[in-house]
Amino acid sequence: MKNLYSEDAFTGLEAAIVLIAFVVVAAVFSYVVLGAGFFTSQTAQSTVHTGVGQASSSMEVVGNVYGVENAGKTALAYENVTVALTAGGTPIDLSGLVVSYTDSNKGHDANLQAGDGAGNLFSCTAAMAQGGTQAWCIGQKINAASATNAMLDPNAQVVIIVGLPTTATPNTQFTVNFQPSTGASLPITKNIPGGLTAVQPLY
User: Fold this and answer.
1) Do 177 and 187 contact (CB within 8 A), yes or no?
2) Are the CB atoms for 182 and 159 separated by under 8 Å?
3) Is the pLDDT of residue 47 over 90?
4) Are 103 and 166 in contact (CB under 8 A)?
5) Within its chain, how far is the Cα of 46 from the centroid?
6) CA 143 to CA 141: how far, in whole Å?
7) Could you tell me which residues come within 8 angstroms of residue 95 by beta carbon, excluding any fewer than 6 positions away?
8) Which are the contacts of 50, defined by CB distance < 8 A and separation ≥ 6?
9) pTM of the predicted model over 0.85
10) How far is CA 102 from CA 58, 108, 193, in A?
11) CA distance 25 to 129
């Protein structure tokens, strides 16, 4: 029986099909590569912006850290820490600050109460002066644009009062860590002297 079709007639069609298949595969591959490249670029950009923000938003201690003894004169009731932005730093909202405490007497609190616990960071309770009240508040703002908000502005200083537990006794080493919502943490390690006075600098 005579063959009704020729193999030569399909050579060009087969080549076209193969060519189209290669083009489609190359297009899909290119799309995947470009998509991965764009994603990587965006991730790198985000990482750079986050790193710059973290590096530029940090605090430092200004002057001495002072400890105030409790009413019973057996331990420190609270400490006063004056903080400011590092050179060229961007403002920090202290309402997002997390303050933690630990000492060599196994005293520990991972998240001290902020102010009165109801959002008022400027409420330093009288109970803090008696000792054993673990909370922190803003005692004073110096050279600030506003004395009523919780922003730490450039060229300004903020006095933070940190209430200490009853384990903050003489000859104890303790660490208070300030962790802002954005920026590097600021750990402060001090030693309580063997003999307490009404107010003493801590080293």
Assistant:
1) yes
2) no
3) no
4) no
5) 17
6) 7
7) 114, 119, 121, 150
8) none
9) no
10) 21, 4, 17
11) 74
Q: Give 72-126 pLDDT, tens digit per residue.
A: 999 999 999 999 999 888 899 999 999 999 999 999 999 999 998 888 999 888 7
Phi, psi of 79 (to 5 degrees): -125, 150
Structure tokens that stand for 66 in this block: 């002072």
Nearest one of 100, 101, 42, 66 to 192, comparing CA atoms? 66
SS (H, E, C) the chain: CCCCCCHHHHHHHHHHHHHHHHHHHHHHHHHHHHHHHHHHHHHHHHHHHHHHHHHHCCEEECCCEEEEECCCCCCEEEEEEEEEECCCCCCEEHHHCEEEEEECCCCEECCCEECCCCCCCCCCCHHHHHCCCCEEEEEEEECCCCCCCCEECCCCEEEEEEECCCCCCCCCEEEEEEECCCCCCEEEEEECCCCCCCEEEEC
Tokens 């000792």 belong to 131
Tokens describing residue 137: 């508040």
